[in-house]
Amino acid sequence: MHLITWNTQWCCGLDGQVSPHRIVHTARSMADFDVLCLQEVAQGYSQLRGQPGDQLAELQALLPGFQVFFGAAVHSFDDQGRAQRFGNLIATRLPVLQVQHHALPWPADGQQRSMPRMCTVVTVMHAELGPLRVMSTHLEYYSARQRMAQVLALRQLHEEACAMAADPPLRVDDGSPFQPLPHTRQAVLCGDFNCSPLSAEYAAMVHSGGPAPWVDAWTQLHGAAPHPPTFQLFDRSCSPVPVACDFVFVSADLADKVQWIEVDLKTQASDHQPVLLSL
After folding, report:
1. Within its chain, how far is the Cα of 139 from the centroid?
2. Contact indicator for 160, 240 with CB cutoff of 8 Å
3. Residue-wise pLDDT tens for the chain (279 aa)?
4. H helices present in 43-143, as ranges
5. Which residue among 18, 105, 180, 260 sits deepest, i.e. has the most Cβ atoms within 10 Å of its Cβ?
6. Is the CATH number 3.50.50.60 carried by domain 2-278?
7. Nearest 5 degrees, angle CA 53-CA 64-CA 3?
8. ∠ CA(76), CA(82), CA(85), 5° rounding?
9. How many angstroms separate the first and last alpha carbons of the chain?
């Protein structure tokens, strides 16, 4: 299974051009992906650089044969009453068993800019791996307090899902919302975590304690080798040096199934670099 995760900056490249087509083309040049996880997808934000349109509709049209699921972390309205949505997208050609959208904590931190954050979860069925939860997220950039709260919430979501897989609800086959849903320990968590591998937030994510630990797919294959940079590789306006902040974590029972992980270090179709995972 091939999965690509990418913070697209509303599909705005470093040339200032907004192009969902370029994003999809670049992702396809990396791999014949089964799952595509995009962060910073926009609808209705005409004042953003490049004036993005309805990117959900554009991306759906560019991905025939894929089901597309969008989770809006921000859903507001402009001064004309027109809807504005900003969030995460998961597209997959695999059979989909369940979709969930989880708002992440947003504790008050009035000294910092911030926006709501969320995690979209799509449970898919893979012929060899079986059921698998794909979790895509984008954590707070400015507030360390909020970012840590969001990391801890992601750990809790995974722990709850694993507990549900071990002890599922009473089976009721009556066609109601109480009908059985798929539960699995197997999961991939990816996205822009806005922290470095040396940060407290990263350490909290991969902390081995607890019933459901996460494993960084990069360190699973490469040990202590530095993560490739995924942000500020070409544009240093936010940081004087390139940093790694886009990660792919896998549940412990998937760690030995990680075959390959790589970062596209050439594209400038966004201010972030896409990451490819092969299981």
Report:
1. 9
2. no
3. 999 999 999 999 999 999 999 999 999 999 999 999 999 999 999 889 999 989 999 999 999 999 999 999 999 999 889 999 999 999 999 999 999 999 999 999 998 999 999 999 999 999 999 999 999 999 999 999 999 999 999 999 999 999 999 999 888 888 898 888 899 999 999 999 999 999 999 999 998 778 899 999 999 999 999 999 999 999 878 778 999 999 999 999 999 999 999 999 999 999 999 999 999
4. 55-62
5. 18
6. no
7. 90
8. 40
9. 5
Structure token pair of residue 234 = 């070409």
Torsions phi, psi of 18, nearest 5? -95, 120
Amino acid occupying residue 201:
E
CB atoms within 10 A of CB 135: 24
- The answer to whether 120 touches 87, Cβ cutoff 8 Å, is yes
Residue among 241, 247, 242 at smallest CA distance from 263: 247
In the block, which residue shows the tokens 């027109």? 82
Q: Give the residue from 50, 44, 46, 47 showing the smallest Cα distance to 8.
A: 50
Output the six-digit token pair for 189.
């968590």
Question: Please, which residues have CB within 8 angstroms of residue 172's CB and are 6 or more apart in sequence?
Answer: 178, 179, 180
Amino acid in position 90: I
Distances (CA, A) of 16 to 13, 51, 112: 5, 10, 26
